[in-house]
Each structure stands twice: as C-alpha cells, then as structure tokens.
Amino acid sequence: MKIRVAAFLFLLIAPVWARAHSHPARQADPLDPGYVFALAAANHFLHAWQTGDLENGMVLLSDSIRHSQNVDKLEQLFSNGKDRAFEITRGHGHPGRYSFPVVLVTHRGSHVTRKFSEIVVVETGKDDWVVDKLP
C-alpha cells in the first residue's frame, strides 16, 4: 500500500516539478559580438521613437518594414515625441537576428500607460543592424 501511495504522489508531483525546473528560453550568446550591435540598434531606434525623430527612426528600419507599413502609420509612430520612455531587457535569438522584450511607457493626462511588446533586429551587413519588427 505504501508503494502505491508513493507512486501516486510521484506521478502527481513529477509534472509540476519538471515544469518548475524547465530550462528558460534561450538567451543571447554573450560571446557573439553581433549581440552588442543588435542591442545598440534597438536602443537607437527606441530613442528615436522617444524623441519623435522620424528621420533617424526611418533609417533604422528594414526594407521589408518600410515597404509593408503605411507611411502615415510610421509617421504617427514617431509623432508626439514627448513624455515617452522605454524599457528594454535582455534579448534572445541567434547571430544575425535578435529579439528584445520592450515596454513603451507614455504619459497621457494623469495616467501612465505601459505597452508590452518586442523589437526584432536583423543584421544586413557587416555590423549593420536594422529593425525588422516594430514594437
């Protein structure tokens, strides 16, 4: 009887324990020098968004984003560049493509809004990175 109870408890607890000890999502390889350039490109793009700098923001967009997005929508993304901030956290991916979780923080009236998203950057050449997915 004790063996049955022990086996039952093991079968009940094992899946929960396995999920709690599963491996986290693959983090970026800190040895890849491209990660630094990817993070810098994401940071530069988000800074352009923060300050409403359409010109510098557009330069950091991939051709596929520029061709797939409405120009008015892109201009609206950069408009009203005040009372904004962003948070960016550790990225994940592989050499040539990284995704960074971000939070876009805006001040509207007496409220602060937070939009959780991600930004994806891709390498287009030697140490040249562009945004391939908008937050």
Structure description:
This protein has a single domain, classed as Roll (Nuclear Transport Factor 2, Chain: A), CATH 3.10.450.50. It has helices spanning 2-20, 33-51, 54-59, 63-68, 71-78; strands spanning 84-88, 92-94, 97-108, 111-125, 128-133. The relative contact order is 0.18. It contains five helices and five strands. It starts with a helix and ends with a strand. It is 43% helix and 30% strand. The chain has 135 residues and is an alpha+beta fold. Strands 1, 2, 3, 4 and 5 form a five-stranded antiparallel β-sheet that branches.
* Poorly predicted ranges: none
Specify Rg, calculated over alpha carbons: 21 Å
Q: What is the overall shape?
A: globular
Determine the mean pLDDT: 84
Provide the CATH top-level class: Alpha Beta
Report the helical percentage: 40-55%
- The secondary-structure class comes to alpha+beta
| Number of beta-strand segments | 5
Q: Report the CATH architecture.
A: Roll
Number of helices: 5
CATH topology: Nuclear Transport Factor 2, Chain: A
Strand count, sense and closure of the main sheet?
5 strands, antiparallel
Query: Secondary-structure element sequence?
Result: HHHHHEEEEE
How far apart are the termini?
57 Å
Estimate the strand proportion: 25-35%
How many discrete structural domains? 1
Keywords:
alpha+beta; 135 residues; single chain; 5-stranded antiparallel β-sheet; 43% helix; Nuclear Transport Factor 2, Chain: A; 5 strands; 5 helices
Helix/strand layout:
Elements: H1 2-20, H2 33-51, H3 54-59, H4 63-68, H5 71-78, E1 84-88, E2 92-94, E3 97-108, E4 111-125, E5 128-133
Antiparallel strand pairs: 1-3, 2-3, 3-4, 4-5
